[in-house]
Design brief:
With 167 residues, the protein is of the alpha/beta class. The chain has 2 domains: 35-85, 2,3-Dihydroxybiphenyl 1,2-Dioxygenase, domain 1 (Roll); 102-167, 2,3-Dihydroxybiphenyl 1,2-Dioxygenase, domain 1 (Roll), CATH 3.10.180. Helix content is 22%, strand content 28%. The chain has helices spanning 6-14, 17-20, 45-55, 111-123; strands at residues 38-42, 59-64, 69-73, 78-83, 104-107, 128-135, 142-147, 153-158. The strands form 2 sheets. It has a 4-stranded mixed sheet with strand order 1-4-3-2, with helices on one face. A hairpin with a 4-residue loop joins strand 3 and strand 4. It starts with 5 loop residues before the first helix and ends in a 9-residue tail after the last strand.
């Protein structure tokens, strides 16, 4: 097994998320590959599933009514949504105090699509926009973060390589 140079390791550890969006590092293939799926416990199963399907254009991909759970996909990512037993007693995630998923970042096709999504989110009564589209770091990578109907934090991001230069 080849080892990475100490300089490359230091660079990877110090890279910001904005740099990671443009890095062209080709390390040796890891033992693990891609994210297979992500599972969220939600307070509003139907509303959250509807958000993914009706607002983002994903497809329903089955579920487990006895759990209850619903599954959604955009053809590349697969998300399982699991209804909590008692939504009234569920503890909302606090990104500064809880261990757990801070947010899920979803790549967006291009800047016009990111802005279209922002308009949809602002108009959606059960979506909270934490911040509108803005540069990540010094840009040009652009992102925004929202909370969907159950309160999950979702980031929508257009990496630098998907941004066409202005003419």
């Amino acid at each position: 097994m080849k080892s990475l140079s100490p300089l490359l390791i230091a660079g990877l550890l110090l890279a910001s998320p904005a740099q990671a969006q443009t890095a062209d590092v080709q390390p040796e293939e890891a033992m693990t590959l891609d994210l297979n799926h992500i599972g969220f416990a939600v307070t509003k199963l139907d509303d959250t599933a509807s958000f993914f399907v009706d607002t983002l254009g994903w497809k329903a991909a089955g579920g487990r009514p006895e759990y209850p759970a619903k599954f959604v996909t955009n053809g590349k990512m697969f998300v399982t949504l699991w209804q909590v037993t008692d939504p009234a007693k569920a503890v909302a995630f606090d990104r500064k105090h809880n261990v757990g998923l801070h947010h899920m970042a979803i790549t967006v096709r291009d800047l016009p699509t990111l802005h279209d999504l922002h308009r949809k989110f602002v108009a959606h009564q059960d979506v909270t926009v934490e911040f509108a589209p803005e540069f990540l770091g010094d840009g040009p990578t652009t992102h925004m973060i929202i909370r969907e109907p159950s309160g999950l934090r979702l980031e929508f991001i257009v990496p630098a390589g998907r941004i066409k230069p202005q003419q």
